[in-house]
Amino acid sequence: MSASEPSLFPLVGFQAVSNAQNEWVALTFELPSDTPDALQASLTLLNYPDVYAALAPLECIIAIPEPLRLEASHLTAMPPNRVILRVAAESVAEAPAQKKCADLAEQGYRIMIDGVAGIAATRAGARALMADCAQVLPPALALLAQPGPHLARNVVNQQRFIACRDAGFSWFMGDYALDPPKEVSASDGTSRKRLLALLGMLARDADSRELEVLLKQDPALSFHLLKLVNSAAFSRGNPIHNFGQAINVLGRRQLQRWLQLLLYARQQEDGSANALLPLAAVRASMMEGLCKLKEGDRDEQDMAFVIGVFSLLDVLLGMPMADIVGALNLDVDVVAALLDRAGAMGELLKLVEGHEQAALDAAGIDGESYWQVQLQAYHWAIQVSRNL
């Protein structure tokens, strides 16, 4: 039986790692705790065709449960310029493991110690620490011993994000993106109403001229749309300066998709990117890809895309989802998925949000196909983040 057969292909959930400006810098491979052989599972994923091209330019942080098990043949799947080896603090407690990691560091691999290991981290050649910061921050001296970048995980909200940043962490992962600063999300009532109006127009397939009128009232959204159509992804040589041209370049179907994502493109008050943008892009692309796997037609795939994008609108707008869908003329299947995670689309959304084997089995999707959809979704989200 080959490693690519559904029963053996590992299920993995990516977690994005961001810098202090909310830009993605890396992805961690999060395998289920009951994975029989985490190293072999990671190698199966990393040996998949075009993995590094799909995830470029992001670093891939791979957990290495037992450093002494690593052999030269394993390393061929892990180029040192693209991979950071994540090693638990307890795994480098003994001298042989420290020497193994130090040898890997000599070969150009970056070692990230998960937990506080003190002098053992230095002996292991570690450059960075990862720490669970949900409740307690590590001692300041622990971060000073290695050059970094140090990664704070389980950052649950904005308050914790600020505390971790001030403590010396420069990379972050956790649910803090789903807890935007309240003064940003709820302060501009006029802008929020304009966004809802635009979403309503998109939902009812409004005329392009109606969209132009509303776009002209929102300088930030207008800027991002013109920036997008003049980017390398769409550029045809001649700069585009008006919305009519932009609509013609994108086409109606793509215009609707990009406008839905552009809603998330607004920068924060401190100039940093909106952390919700790539998350919305991933959800939208994964929903579309999974719907296609289920042999959904083009209209169903469009519906799945919309559900993925809209699934974070309550966070973006600081409003209950029930109020949002109530203001829009959405298909009943979209409403059921967004409000209750109900129906076929709701089941797919739960899978996208949770990456659980039971949900994957219930959807009748094999592990390898799911991995392909994930790669495509993250590749697209990375490109979206760079173009908007």
- What summary fits the major beta sheet? 8 strands, mixed, barrel
CATH superfamily of the largest domain: Hypothetical protein af1432
Here the CATH topology of the largest domain equals Hypothetical protein af1432
How many domains, in number, for the residues? 2
**Helix and strand element order:** EEHHEHEHEHEHEHEHHHHHHHHHHHHHH
Mean pLDDT: 86
CATH architecture of the largest domain: Orthogonal Bundle
Radius of gyration, in Å, reads 22 Å
Low-confidence regions: 1-7, 183-187
- Give the strand order of the largest sheet, numbering strands 1, 2, ... along the chain: 1-2-3-4-5-6-7-8
Look at the helices and sheets and give the structural class.
Answer: alpha/beta
Strand segment tally = 8
Number of helices: 21
Coarse morphology: globular
What would you say this structure looks like, in words?
The chain has 21 helices and eight strands. The protein has 388 residues and is an alpha/beta fold. The chain has two domains: 167 residues, TIM Barrel (Alpha-Beta Barrel); 209 residues, Hypothetical protein af1432. The protein has an eight-stranded mixed beta barrel with strand order 1-2-3-4-5-6-7-8. The longest helix is centred in the last third of the chain and has 21 residues. The chain starts with 12 loop residues before the first strand and ends with a helix.
Keywords:
2 domains; TIM Barrel; 51% helix; 8-stranded mixed β-barrel; alpha/beta; Hypothetical protein af1432
